[in-house]
Specification:
By secondary structure, the protein is α+β, with helices and mostly antiparallel strands. The chain has helices at residues 11-19, 95-100, 104-111, 119-130, 138-143, 178-192; strands at 2-4, 33-34, 37-44, 47-48, 51-52, 73-82, 90-94, 114-117, 147-150, 152-154, 161-163, 170-173, 198-201, 208-212, 216-220, 231-238, 243-244. Bound molecules: 2-oxoglutaric acid. Residues 43, 58-59, 65, 76, 78, 90, 218, 220, 232, 234 line the site of 2-oxoglutaric acid.
Length: 245
C-alpha cells in the first residue's frame, strides 16, 4: 500500500495518475460511476436532490477488488473527499503473511486448490442485510458469473506466494460443495483477518491510497451514522489472471 496525504486532485488528474500503472476498469455497478468519468467509481452515502451520489457502504466486508472477475484488479486508488469526524476507517490485511504463517501441510494442500468467487455471494450475504444502495441488478449479475481462481497465487512482480481468497466473494472450493468447503474456509477467514496482519487506515480528506489487490484484502468499516457523509472516488487498475503456484 502507498499512502499519499494532502493531495489536491481533480477527477481528470486522479484518472491520469492511475493510468500510469495500467489501463482502468469501468465498474459493473454503472449507477455508481462519476458522470463524465466512467473510470471513477463513487463510494458515497451522500444523497443530493433525492439522488444517491454513489454506492453507499460498498466494501463493508473483507474482499479483494474484482476477485469475482476472470481477470481481477491489480490495484485500486481511492481518494477521500468527505470523511466522518469519527469512524469510516478501512482495514487492509496482508495476504503474504496470511499464507506464510500457515503450516507446511496446510500450505501444500491449499497450493493445489482452486476456489469459486462470486459477486452475488457478497450481495446476498452482506448487502441484503445492511440496506446498501445500488445492489446488483439483473444486467450486472449477468456480467459477473462465478469464476474460479487458485487459492494461492504467485505475485507476478515479487514472486511471493499470497492467499487469494476472501470472505466477501469466495463461496466454496472447486469440486466441493459449499457445505464441505465451509469448515476450512471459516478457519482460513479467521486466520487471514487476525489483527497481526492488519493495517487500519484512518482517512483524512485529500488522502490518496493505492493498494495492491493481489496480496491484500480490505474491509471498509461502517461505524458512522447514515447522516454522516462519507464520499470517496476510486479508480481500479486492470490486472492479470492469477498464476497458481
Ligand atoms: O470505502 C472504502 O473505504 C473502501 C471501499 C471498498 O472496499 C472498495 O473500494 O473496494
Amino acid at each position: 500500500m502507498l499512502i499519499f496525504r494532502d493531495q489536491h486532485l481533480t477527477p481528470a488528474q486522479h484518472v491520469a495518475f492511475s493510468r500510469r500503472f495500467g489501463s482502468l476498469e469501468t465498474h459493473v455497478i454503472s449507477e455508481a460511476l462519476l458522470e463524465g468519468y466512467p473510470e471513477i467509481y463513487v463510494i458515497s452515502n451522500v444523497v443530493e436532490n433525492g439522488k444517491p451520489k454513489g454506492r453507499a457502504y460498498a466494501g463493508t466486508y473483507w474482499h479483494s477488488d474484482l476477485s469475482y472477475m476472470a481477470v481481477p484488479a491489480m490495484g485500486s486508488m481511492m481518494y477521500a473527499l468527505q470523511i466522518p469526524e469519527i469512524g469510516g476507517d478501512t482495514m487492509f490485511a496482508n495476504m503474504y503473511l496470511a499464507y506464510e504463517t500457515l503450516s507446511m501441510g496446510l500450505q501444500r494442500m491449499l497450493d493445489g486448490l482452486s476456489a469459486v468467487h462470486d459477486f452475488g455471494h457478497a450481495d446476498q450475504r452482506y448487502f441484503s442485510k445492511r440496506g446498501a444502495t445500488a445492489r446488483l441488478n439483473e444486467a450486472s449479475r449477468k456480467k459477473t458469473p462465478p469464476v474460479e481462481h487458485p487459492v494461492v497465487r504467485t505475485h507476478p512482480t515479487t514472486g511471493r506466494k499470497a492467499l487469494f481468497i476472501n470472505p466477501g466473494f469466495t463461496s466454496h472450493f472447486v469440486d466441493m460443495t459449499e457445505e464441505e468447503s465451509e469448515p476450512l474456509l471459516a478457519y482460513l477467514f479467521q486466520h487471514i483477518t487476525q489483527p497481526a496482519f492488519i493495517y487500519r487506515h484512518r482517512w483524512q480528506v485529500n488522502d490518496l491510497v493505492f493498494w495492491d489487490n493481489r496480496c491484500t484484502i480490505h474491509h471498509a468499516i461502517r461505524d458512522y451514522g447514515e447522516e454522516t457523509p462519507r464520499h470517496m472516488h476510486r479508480t481500479t487498475i486492470c490486472g492479470d489472471k492469477p498464476v497458481p503456484v
